[in-house]
Amino acid sequence: MSADGDAAEETAFVRTYALTRGRTRPRHLLGVDTVLDAGPGRPGPGQVEECEEILALCWEHRRSVAELAGRLGRPVTAVKILVSDLLDAHALVISVTDAYATSDEDADADADERPNPHLLAALAAGLKRKWPDAVTYAQAG
After folding, report:
1. Cα(17)–Cα(31) distance, rounded to whole angstroms?
2. What are φ and ψ of residue 103, in 5° steps?
3. Which CA distances in Å does 101 have to 17, 110, 113, 114?
4. List of E strands, 18-139
């Protein structure tokens, strides 16, 4: 690789590191297919400009984490970290939709039958963080 290619790769790495403030993991359990909606909150004053871009995209319509990463041209992990920050600020919300419903009446009627797997995964992750020993007790009982 040329010296210019090495420099460009190094600059992209440093920019991603600065973008996430050195963090390597999001605080929320997010999949690449997690769908996000704009929420009522606003990002904090120290948020990077990519957070504003994420919000602008989500104001247009719901977006998945993978789509946001592609549109921003950033690694998925970095976007997950930014999305996690925006979830903490209530600027984004995880869209809880029933993908299998054919109409609004069907969605209401079947909502209790098919829980959203993303919501359940986020709930499980939150419970594990709050009570890490609970899994041991539940499996032992």
Report:
1. 21
2. -150, 170
3. 41, 8, 11, 10
4. 35-38, 63-64, 92-94
Q: Which of 52, 58, 18 is nearest to 35 (CA)?
A: 58
Is pTM, for the whole model, over 0.85?
no
CA 99/CA 23 separation, integer angstroms: 32
Phi/psi zone of residue 27: left (φ > 0), alpha (ψ -120 to 50 degrees), beta?
alpha
Residue 118's nearest CA partner among 103, 99, 134 is 99
Determine how many CB atoms are found less than 10 A away from the CB of residue 55.
20
pLDDT tens-digit map of 89-98: 999 999 876 4
Distances (CA, A) of 48 to 13, 15, 19, 73: 16, 11, 7, 15
Residue 56 has pLDDT above 60, yes or no: yes
Residue with tokens 């790769």: 9
